[in-house]
Predict the structure.
Amino acid sequence: MSRIDPVVLLVLLVFTVPILVQLRTVAFYLGFEPTVTQSIILGLAVIVVIVGWAYWPARWLPSEPEGCE
Amino acid sequence: MSTYVEQFPAEARLVRSAMYTAFVALGLGAAFGLLQVLHRTNVLRVIDSTDYYTILTLHGVLLVLTFTIFFLVAIFTWAITTSLDRPLPDHRFSWTWYGLMTGGTVLAAIPIVGGLIDQIDMSAAVLFTFYAPLQAHWLFYVGLALFVVGTWLAGVDWIRTYLAWRREHPDERIPLPTFMVLTTMGFWYLSSVGVALSVLVFLLPWSLGIFEHVNALLTRTMFWYFGHAVVYFWLMPTYLLWYLLLPKVAGGKLFSDPLARIVFVLFLLLSTPTGIHHQYLDPGIAEGFKYVAMTNTMFLLLPSLLTAFTVVASIEHGARQRGGTGRLRWLGALPWRDPVFTGMALAGVMFAAAGFSGIVNAGLNVNYLVHNTFWVVGHFHLTVGTAVALTFMAASYWFLPQVTGKPLWGRPLALGQVLLWFLGMTFMSNAMHRGGLAGIPRRTAEPQYNFSFEPAIGSVAELDAQVVLGGTLLFLSTVLFLTVVLGTLRGGVDPTRIPANTYAAALSEAEDGPRILDNLRLWVLIAVVLVILAYAFPIAAIVDRSGWLGPGGSPYPQVVWVVEYLVVALALR
């Protein structure tokens, strides 16, 4: 079971793409100069982290009471 | 409560026809867009570079004139009839304007396509910005004139419907959708007069050989008098959908009806006296006039920011009605599974980015950096190419069932389509903006020539790859959209599975705002005065300097001046 609705997760991932694309620009201005390959790997890593966050069991979240649909 | 086709079957037929015409134009225009992307980046060249302008003209005319305007006349017809709860007064008249628009499109397309066929001696590779010195076959101008007259008659149709309603409801406030249509048509009449005069008085006689030459700067100025306002002609139906449909599908209400009226009044006043900001680098217009245009343009940020506030507030209201809580967690309560909502919301996000690049375009000095570069192409693919086009496509998923009585087919596919568009445009527009900053020109099949552009970040090859990736995703998204449309049309009629034909109510009603907002005569009068102030002197100066038909035998004096300056500069060396 995911932490958020899978469709909301999908929208979130799509919305992450322009942020990642622009982060590359920001990185250059901060003195880092990632290559295209490095940027793609970093982007995939961020996406994996988000997906992991969405599907990782959230122990600290209160469990649903029994009988709740 | 019932669907639109049950309430207004005759009008639904008209709306359907206009939408189908728009969709055909969208499919063709997108295919030509893909051809350009692949050609410019040298990935795949199936056309000759000499035909690039013709393909570009087809892409521009089909998408920014045909797709957008056919779709908006459909939306406006829906808005008028639904909000006034009455049919159009004369269906023969309605089909006449639709016929004029369609006939005009076909006539204009014939010489453009003729340019691709060697055996046909006609051409209209003049781009969407069809001013002199580029000259088209006269059929192109006749087609354009008929198309514009068609939109004028459509406006007459809606105004007649409104006046009939007004006679029966003398003291009521104008329903918001009707108010939006009337204010939009107010500035459309005002602005399209410029291009109509340019076409009928100068360009058409010139193409027929009646005039040997025309004043290029004058026709250019008259084009941009219309050319920026037409952007708002595309955007206002988009705003209409963001104000009336987006809050509804989000589950809430429009935050403020009076604020929406103020926004539309501001666009009526300010959308036309701004066109000269497209001519910052034109040598024949004094800097002072350009400064006035820049000031007017910057004022346009106000209604855009008001819209951003109102739409976000309306969406948040909807999310909280659906149980959303917290400062940002309410975002998760929005109906992201609904392609209508998701498409329009993502279009709004892209429009915010477009606003920022638009500020750069509008700045008199900063514009020099990006003028006529790929940056501008990136900008308008965010505005008309996403804010407008993606909103129209997403809204189609709501309108198609309304006007056909058939439930939407392939909802997950539709959701994928709007997400794919967002992704594609992210890559394509980002690369275009960055390429523009590096000086890569727009409107050319061969941007590389023998010149090496040096982007501040990455390489031109990287930017090209992004453009190809983005353009391909956008084309695939269009194919998906048309698939969903065809799938829906092939389905059976079942009105019970379609939501009722309504639009969002307002938290703050029209009565909360002053009645003067509904005084359309006053706002149109002020708009006319602003236009005269902004344009009377520049046009008088242009005509005074070069005459109505341009100086001597050359319709392109700038070239002469540039050559003279170069000669003097070389002599001084």
About this structure: Residues 65-69 of chain A have pLDDT under 50 and may be disordered. Chain A has one domain: 6-55. The longest helix of chain A spans residues 6-29.
